[in-house]
């Protein structure tokens, strides 16, 4: 019997669409965040309606809930 090893990444690097700054953020377990404030330019970043959250749209990895769905 094969054991599925599931590793969910909780660190993500968001790229601000306004100023291009990259920020490393800690995602909470299965949290879905639709808005985020850029620490560099203070722009409020919002996910498009067709995206799960700002982590999925502007991050290097999908949010934790989407990572779980993919496995």
Which descriptors apply to this entry?
alpha+beta; 17% helix; two-stranded antiparallel sheet; 71 residues; 2 helices; two-stranded antiparallel ribbon; single chain
Describe this structure in words.
There is one protein chain. The protein has 71 residues and is of the alpha+beta class. It has one domain (11-67). The protein is built from two helices and four strands. It has helices at residues 54-58, 64-70; strands at 11-15, 22-26, 35-37, 44-46. A two-stranded antiparallel sheet has the order 1-2. Strands 3-4 form a two-stranded antiparallel ribbon. A hairpin with a 6-residue loop joins strand 1 (11-15) and strand 2. The longest helix is centred in the C-terminal third of the chain and has 7 residues, at 64-70. The chain is globular and about 35 Å long. The two termini are 17 Å apart. The relative contact order is 0.26.
Please describe the topology of this protein.
Layout lengths: L10 E5 L6 E5 L8 E3 L6 E3 L7 H5 L5 H7 L1
Antiparallel strand pairs: 1-2, 3-4
The termini sit apart by: 17 Å
**Strand fraction band?**
15-25%
Order of helix and strand elements from N to C terminus:
EEEEHH
Instruction: Please give the domain count.
Output: 1
The number of distinct β-strands equals: 4
The order of strands across the largest sheet is 1-2
The largest β sheet comes out as:
2 strands, antiparallel
Assembly category:
single chain
- Unreliable parts: none
Helix tally equals 2
Shape: globular
Average pLDDT works out at 87
Structural class by SSE content: alpha+beta
Which percent range fits the helix content?
Answer: 10-25%
Radius of gyration computed on alpha carbons: 13 Å
